[in-house]
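Service request form, structural biology core

Requester: graduate student, group of Dr. S.
Request type: structure prediction, single chain
Budget code: on file
Notes: please return the result as structure tokens.

Sequence provided:
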Amino acid sequence: MTTTGTDPRPTADQQADDVDHRTGALWTVIARREVAVKLTDRSFVLGTLLSLGLIVGLVGVQVWMDSRTHDYEVAVSSAAAGELAGAVADQAPDLDDDVSVEVVDLADDDAARTAVADEEVDAWLRPPAEAGDPWTLVGRDDPDDRLQRLVRDVLSEQVLAETAREAGTTLAEVTAGAELTAEPLDGDDDLGALRDVLGFALAFLFYVATIMFGMTLASSVVEEKQSRIVEMIAAAVPLRQLLAGKIAGNTALALGQMVVYVAIGMVALTFTDFGDLVPALSGEMGWFLVFFLVGFVALSCLWAVAGALASRTEDLQHTSGAVTMLILAMFFGALFLDGTAAEVASYVPPLSAILMPTRLVDGTAAWWEPLVALGLLLAFAAVLVLVAERLYRRALLQTGGRLSLRAAWSLEE
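Core staff response, request fulfilled:
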């Protein structure tokens, strides 16, 4: 009996489309596996928590230092020293709001010297033995710089005031025109100080993340190659899909970790004296994350190639040496380049991945500069992905020993 109707079996074209669809989704499976393995790795989780603890701890120390009052006990053993020390105690809150001075009257010089030696007081203020000799601040060790500066300022003011009286004028007239004030171009010296610290912190975070996740990626590649597991994987997964999945998974982890670090750091800063300045830096933090994403993808390709060129774990130190040196150059470039050199280098990939965000944080880049630098970095990353994909595919299944870049490029697939 013959029946008519549609053949339920898929055509050759449908089978090909189905294979392409499944192949296109394989990189996402690999990426999810990379993320899942890392999130269940105790050392990774503990390292992330430790880093967060360090960030919060450093900010906490800053909060404590900002809120701490430096209390000094200054011994005096004469009327002249008592008068000067009293003036220092009275003017201390106006000159430095984090300093408090208490005057301790003692019977004589020997008692004052003993009190300093026994650390019962922080310092002993001793008047000059003869006219024209200097005053002396005696401490068991070198007296604290803040206390020395405070006593010196008050003493200078008193000497000038006495000189003015003897000349028949006033201290204000004598010192007129001798004052110096500082005026930063951005209008906020606190913001300038915070920018300097953040520039270093962001460069350091970029360096640590690219080294840590990059070495993990390279180690994963060479371990699979050394154990021959990659040969079984390659039978089911196109190598370009394997590379894409590994890079995507590690990039997602690194970017997620960086977002957490930046967010926690910004929230923690709100509890410091810099809290009012945090909104002014939110845009720069966003740019840093964008440059980090593109720069990390580019560098991940190099790490993957370093792993593919090695045949054993012992080879990895050699094959990854150039990548490590490049990342070190990027880090030290962000720290030491300045002026025109830093401006030019902030457009040069992959240095721009650190230098341009650093310039944005420093406030030395115009609004259009990160757009140009990002475009160049994206073009560089695209070319690097294509080159790395070819090297990775040709070197990954070669187990005869460590390969050079030239040899890997010349291999037939």
